């Protein structure tokens, strides 16, 4: 079963951390991806650029509306993700607690709905 682990944290607080701390967190995340890969659970992972670089796309009455975004009132922003294979939610949560971002923010664990007919790509 596939799960998406959405890593959220406060970008302002993260930017105030030392470069050494941020680098250590990235190294721990990379190490986790290798552990998951060795167990056949790793599909993909990546940090995201700051929310200020994002845009929001909506289509209304067949017209695209593109605005700077996201405009949400929260201290935590989507900072990155891990796409994994796990046997069940408990196993996915066990992996989520290992994500370094969980120590400064939160990790949302969501099961994917797998549908047929999509193109397949080997990661």
Measured between the Cα atoms of the first and last residue, the distance is 16 Å
Largest sheet: 4 strands, antiparallel
Catalogue the unreliable spans. none
Mean pLDDT: 92
CATH T-level fold name: Alpha-Beta Plaits
Output the CATH homologous superfamily: Dimeric alpha+beta barrel
Number of helical segments with 4 or more residues: 3
Q: Find the structural class using helix and strand composition.
A: alpha+beta
Report the principal-axis shape. globular
Helix content, binned percent? 25-40%
Spatial order of the strands forming the largest sheet: 2-5-1-6
- Helices and strands, in order, run as EHHEEEEHE
The CATH architecture can be named as 2-Layer Sandwich
CATH structural class: Alpha Beta
Q: State which percent range the strand residues make up.
A: 35-45%
Structure description:
It contains 3 helices and 6 strands, in the order βααββββαβ. With 123 residues, the protein is of the alpha+beta class. It has a single domain (2-111), classed as Dimeric alpha+beta barrel (Alpha-Beta Plaits). Strands 2-5-1-6 form a 4-stranded antiparallel β-sheet. Strand 3 and strand 4 (63-69) form a beta hairpin. The model has no long low-confidence stretch (mean pLDDT 92).
């Amino acid at each position: 079963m596939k799960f998406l682990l959405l890593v959220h944290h406060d970008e302002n607080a993260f930017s105030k951390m030392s470069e050494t701390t941020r680098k250590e967190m990235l190294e721990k995340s990379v190490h986790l991806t290798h552990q998951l890969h060795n167990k056949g659970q790793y599909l993909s992972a990546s940090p995201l650029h700051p929310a200020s670089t994002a845009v929001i796309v909506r289509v209304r009455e067949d017209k695209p509306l593109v605005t700077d975004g996201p405009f949400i009132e929260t201290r935590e922003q989507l900072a990155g993700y891990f796409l994994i294979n796990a046997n069940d939610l408990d196993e996915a949560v066990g992996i989520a607690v290992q994500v370094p971002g969980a120590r400064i923010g939160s990790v949302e664990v969501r099961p994917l709905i797998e549908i047929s007919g999509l193109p397949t790509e080997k990661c």
